[in-house]
Amino acid sequence: MKIYGDSNSGNCLKVKWVCDKLALPYQWIEIDTRKGETRTPQFLKMNGAGQVPTVAFADGRTLAQSNAIIRYLARDSALVPRDAFTAAKMDEWLFWEQYSHEPYIAVCRFLMVYLGKDASELDPEKVKRGYAALDRMEQHLDASRFFAGDEVSLADVSLLAYTRLAHEGGFDLGRYASVRRWIGDVEAFLGLPPAR
């Protein structure tokens, strides 16, 4: 299995973390999206959307979209709850992450880290919606240790990727005690050093 990814992308790191946790063998192929490496004819043949992560399997099949990839790779593991409803709740959070979290938390981080924007230059609506996502996470984590059931699931892995770096997008995690506790728990589970 070859993982085409950008080491600075939380969406790509999700795939790496799942492979590492489950001891799945892979070859990481670093792709620089800002140099157009996802727009080459060879890459577009694997993924017509021109996005990372993209996984190429030994049999020639490819798979894109981070949450679809981790859902497939972890399908028979403890990262997917055995109870059907709890697994559906995990999927609910996976879909929410891509629609209501990543477009705000990750985009603000991209603007500040990669485009050198100051926090004052961020779209106020993106900042507002990012904080709304963090508020929702805090509310959930006040009552639950993890996002789907009593153990770490793919929902936690997916949400960790950009939440642990939210401060790089100008978000203050200081008022989110439950989110900070959860970040530490999931980082420890995955064997990750604390986010800087």
TrEMBL record:
<feature type="domain" description="GST N-terminal">
    <location>
        <begin position="1"/>
        <end position="81"/>
    </location>
</feature>
<keyword id="KW-0808">Transferase</keyword>
<dbReference type="Pfam" id="PF13409">
    <property type="entry name" value="GST_N_2"/>
</dbReference>
<dbReference type="InterPro" id="IPR036249">
    <property type="entry name" value="Thioredoxin-like_sf"/>
</dbReference>
<comment type="subunit">
    <text>Homodimer.</text>
</comment>
<dbReference type="InterPro" id="IPR036282">
    <property type="entry name" value="Glutathione-S-Trfase_C_sf"/>
</dbReference>
<feature type="domain" description="GST C-terminal">
    <location>
        <begin position="83"/>
        <end position="196"/>
    </location>
</feature>
<protein>
    <submittedName>
        <fullName>Glutathione S-transferase</fullName>
        <ecNumber>2.5.1.18</ecNumber>
    </submittedName>
</protein>
<dbReference type="InterPro" id="IPR040079">
    <property type="entry name" value="Glutathione_S-Trfase"/>
</dbReference>
<dbReference type="InterPro" id="IPR004045">
    <property type="entry name" value="Glutathione_S-Trfase_N"/>
</dbReference>
<dbReference type="GO" id="GO:0004364">
    <property type="term" value="F:glutathione transferase activity"/>
</dbReference>
<dbReference type="InterPro" id="IPR010987">
    <property type="entry name" value="Glutathione-S-Trfase_C-like"/>
</dbReference>
<dbReference type="Pfam" id="PF13410">
    <property type="entry name" value="GST_C_2"/>
</dbReference>
